[in-house]
Structure formats: C-alpha cells, structure tokens
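Sanity check

After download, print the first record. It should look like this:
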Amino acid sequence: MKKIEDLKKEISDNIKLMKDKKEIGKKYSSISKKNQYLSQLVMYLETNPSESYLKSERDSILKIITTKQSQFKYWSESVCSQDVPVAKRNALFNKEIGLAELKKRIKTLNFILS
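Expected structure tokens:
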C-alpha cells in the first residue's frame, strides 16, 4: 500500500523538476496534472483507510462492472436502435453506465494498493 510520505516525496521531486522548465519542455502540464492527482491521493490517505476496506471497495466495483456489462445484450436489443452499429452501441452503453469512471476508480485503488 502506498504511503503518504512516498507520495509527498514524489510531488516535491516533480516540483523541483518543473522549476527547470528547459529540460521537461512539453511535459510540464502532464507533470502538473500528476501532482494534482497525487495531492488528491495524499488527502485521501490522510483519512487512514484500511487496506481491507480498499480491497473490498475494489472488489465491489469490479462486481458492479461485471453486472452492468452482462446487461449489454438486453440493452442492445431492447433500448438501442438496431440501426446503430454494434461498436457505437457498445460505446453508448459504456457511456450510459459510466464505465470510464468506474475503471478510473479501479485504477486509483490499484495504484494505492500497489
């Protein structure tokens, strides 16, 4: 599990790197975004979530994703027009169920737990 000190050290290293703009060039904005992400993780980890809670949260989100994806066939046949290509239907379904947000949460939990 990630530690607050490690994340704060990475943030400070990134800030030092950002001060020397000549070396990083176009990577400045991506490093800035990463620092914002890491700062949010630090704030979350300061609430002292237990590792078991994080694992159970990850498992429940994975179950939600699996359940929602199993409903695609029904949604595709009943709700969505058959004139729409399958790839577009899949994209519409993923947007409707919020799959991108769920996957982002899984990615964040995996990062914290690594």
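If your output differs, re-run the checksum step. Summary of this record's structure: The two ends are 5 Å apart (CA to CA).
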